[in-house]
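Reference record
================
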Amino acid sequence: MAQPDNLANQEAHWNKTSRLMWINLGIWFFFGYVVHMFVVPLNKIIIPVLGFPLGFYMAAQGSLVAFVVLCFWNSSAQNKIDEEFGVAED
């Protein structure tokens, strides 16, 4: 049987981990679906240096870059949560 403090610690850890998961899913949904819903209006904006329409860039490259950054950010944030609750791996 778990100690009350340990149980409270596990619940607090799960709450923070769960919140991080929902934030990640929200960001993923935004870059995976919402941005692509507005490709046509975004195509009216031209990226000055590259000369590509912004909608094309976001659909072709921007979302992929956002997903990679999201993966690294999620890993870092989860590691901080794990360290806070003493369950981090070496």
Q: What stands out?
A: The radius of gyration is 19 Å. The mean pLDDT is 88. The CA atoms of residues 82 and 88 lie 5 Å apart. Residues 4-37 form the longest helix (34 residues).
